[in-house]
Amino acid sequence: MENPIGSETGRWAGRFFTIWTGQALSLFGSALVQFALIWWLTQKSGSATVLAIATLVGMLPQIVAGPFAGALVDRWNRRIVMIVADGTIAAFSLLLAYLFATGVVQIWHVYAVMAVRALGGAFHFPAMSASTRMMVPEKQLTRISGLNQALQGINSLAAPPLGALLLGFLQTQNILLIDVATAMLAIIPLLFIPIPQPKRHTVAQQGVKTSLMQDIREALNYIRSLPGLVIIIFMALFLNFLLVPTSSLMPLLVTKHFGRGAIELGLIESVSGVGIIAGGLLLGIWGGFKKKMITSIIGIIGLGIGVTLIGIAPANLFILAILGSITLGFMSPIANGPLGALLQSIIRPDMQGRVMSLLNSGATAISPIGLLIAGPFSDWFGIRVWFWAGGFVCVIIAIAGFFIPAVMGIENHKEAHPDTVTDPI
């Protein structure tokens, strides 16, 4: 197997973390902007429909364009893809800042920029994920996934209050300029640090041009060739279907069942964010068990226990829901981090953009389906039922994974990876 550039010399960490730090700052800037734009839409319209459309605008580009973006990422230079994605997002943020500054901004302008940002993310996510596999030694992938999970927790915990604070001092256009500045911090390291590119193992390398649909079909066939991977993907999608609606139902659970208010809702969401950060940092330091699936399955069991605790908590025992929320947050990186590292380690490098995009599109698409079903279900059977029943099913699915040889043996799939070519500067 060809090693990522610099992995044997110990130089990988300096190169990778220089890029990672820039990307982390850019993600935080984007989180601030997202909060500011949602707040502006709320103040401008006061309409739930407007906010729902904003959510849809953020999802559709990832669902529809994601598979094609992944195919293009596998064709193109991934470093350039990230530069263009970050640059395009920054350019449209700058344009929106001008519209705010001149006082001509309209709701549809915000929608358009949100769509562009989502489209940029559809290209950026698979490019960064695939590049990580090429830059980081395989034994360090789980730790990096843990740090990424912790970063997501920090963004979800810190961006809303900081965004609210900044809105008290700055106008919306100035917050958009923060996003532009952080995007530049993400782009600058990419201009100077090479990222290895894999050679494609397709008919394209014999000079036969393939279509995007052929590339996507090739990725689907590749997934089907690994039965364990197919099972893991369906498990992940079903768990997403069960767990994503819990965040949307949480305000109703806090107010209707526990009889609490905004402070308690903020508390239960904050402790979940703290749990995510703690779990991500632990995974980043520890690295998980040698067999990544064991770590991930234990994490999924923990997710199920956390959701179940929230669902079974009596109205007079809100502290049990707090404990469940902490558990849910803490176990999220333990479940997701090793799984992401597993996919990066077993999927052929020249296929990673397509496969990761297909998975991301599926996970994004399953979320609104879960919400559409969870709403009426909770109205008929009660909000708590979705929590404890979904948590129980999570635990059962995870335990079943221990007894499926194709799942537990997925890490034995080690094929010869394509040779890498250094990305010239």
Task: Describe what this molecule looks like in 3D.
Helix 10 (292-312) runs antiparallel to helix 11 (318-346). The protein has a two-stranded antiparallel ribbon. The chain folds into two domains: 12-194, MFS general substrate transporter like domains (Growth Hormone, Chain: A); 217-412, MFS general substrate transporter like domains (Growth Hormone, Chain: A). It is mainly alpha-helical and 425 residues long. The protein has 14 helices and two strands, in the order H-H-H-H-H-H-E-H-H-H-H-H-H-H-H-E. It has helices at 12-45, 48-75, 78-102, 107-135, 141-167, 172-192, 212-224, 227-257, 262-286, 292-312, 318-346, 352-381, 383-401, 405-408; strands at residues 197-198, 420-421.
Question: Can you describe this structure in just a few lines?
Answer:
The protein has 425 residues and is mostly helical. The protein is built from 14 helices and 2 strands. The longest helix is centred in the N-terminal third of the chain and has 34 residues, at 12-45.
Question: Got a strand count?
Answer: 2
Judging from the principal axes of the Cα atoms, what is the shape?
globular
CATH superfamily assignment of the largest domain?
MFS general substrate transporter like domains
Order of strands, widest sheet:
1-2
Please write the string of helix (H) and strand (E) elements.
Answer: HHHHHHEHHHHHHHHE
Task: Classify the beta-strand content into a percent band.
Answer: under 5%
Return the domain count. Answer: 2
At CATH's second level, what is the architecture of the largest domain? Up-down Bundle
